[in-house]
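Researcher: Structure for this, please.
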Amino acid sequence: MVQYCCKRHQRDDWPQHKPECKAFRALGLRATFYRDEDMLAAFPLQSHRAARSSTPPPVPAGASCPICGKGAGQAPLTRTPCCQQLVCDTNARYQIGSFSRDICPRSLQRYTLCG
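Model: Predicted structure, token format:
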């Protein structure tokens, strides 16, 4: 749905807007404005993490870190809070200001879309 500041602007925009309106009408759709309260009642806000269980799934045998390739026998593995991806649990070795890419959880947060 489009709102205009005045009738003149609505008339000026009608040639461009008419095909869009026609397509919506053909699909049987019509635009309506909703109040924020109505939308929040229908679709309440919630954290994407709220739906997850509080206990992460166990580390499967033979699992390895996708960043450095180390297996469970070479480095302790942990799950990331964002996507439950298995990565090396090497945060304790990180030194502030070193910008080391050897710390897998930091690398996941800084260099991927996941973090």
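Researcher: Any notable elements?
Model: The chain has a mean pLDDT of 76. The longest strand covers residues 77-79.
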